[in-house]
Amino acid sequence: MFNRRSWKLAASVVTSLLLLSGCGLFQKDDAVKEIDPPQDVSYLKDGQSLQEVTKENEGKQEKEKATETVKRELYLIDKNGFVVPQTVELPKTKAVAKQVLEYLVEDGPVSEILPNGFRAVLPAGTTVLGTKLEKDGTLIADFSPEFAHYKPEDEKKILQAITWTLTQFDNVKRVKIRINGYDQDVMPVNKTPIQGGVSRADGINIEANGVNDITNTHPVTVYFVAQQGNETYYVPVTRRVSNKEKDNITAAVNELIKGPDYGSGLVSSFQPDTKLLEKPKYEDGKVTLNFNEAIYGSNKKNVISDLVLNSLVLSLTEQQGIESVSITVNGKANLVREDGKPLAKPVTRPTNVNTGSF
């Protein structure tokens, strides 16, 4: 039993604690941080077992994992009949080659994300039976027999779309095709030769108009501009240029200035009097181009069109070894972009093409 002295001592201690609590000893201090954050807690509902809760949580984790996406380029056919890259968000997966091919199938999963004015290239019902990457960078794509059920006029477009879609991956250099496990030396309908595989060097949207002797020419791929509604996008076109033109950089620039074929549905943003004032300079992956003032294409001083700049960068970085493009006018590097920002540094190729932004 407490005596009077003990009671007074206890009361004094309680009083002191209450006073201290008013000074913050037992208050939440914003300056104090938790060492370990609170863990997620799963509560059992009435009649629910621990196994059911565990399974439910695993399902949530799988669903969250399935929503992870990554940007990929799919080569589709636009309203003008050109094979065009379109960058889309696809679910993240380890089987990337098989996945992008499955998204080229008509009425397949691409249907939900197909841009306006575009169509898939592989016949409906085609199944991708498998893909295999060889040590030399050749990727073998194996399709079901439905692969052969396409229109003759689509054959080269299908071949180009498959090849350029797969070679977006750095370790894929060329593509071979199998049908139901059997190697194909030619395409099944129009018998286009494919023995040994197909690469980007074989071209895309190939134009050979006005070329009398194809044996004395070589391919150069350039990017022109097309429009669907309010959206502008870039279309790769492979042209044959004379073997007398040894410099592929100059050849590509001249083809861009020449512009697309009349009636193709493509346009060029280059003024016809645009000229290179000297031979392009190449050093350590960078190309420097010196133009006359016609490269501006408007009355705005020193302003270069985004369409002109993007077409140049896409066209030249398509060539092996070219990583960036620097532009001068009359030898001066005082150009300005359309948004008013100085074009102070060399421009590199975007990771993905036709994303809606550059």
UniProtKB/TrEMBL annotation:
Residue ranges constituting the GerMN domain according to the UniProt record: 97-188, 249-338
Transmembrane domains' residue ranges: none
A Pfam family this chain is assigned to: Germane
Keywords attached to this entry: Signal
Alphabetical list of SMART domains matching this protein: Germane (SM00909)
Leader sequence segment: 1-26
Protein name: GerMN domain-containing protein
Lineage: Bacteria, Bacillati, Bacillota, Bacilli, Bacillales
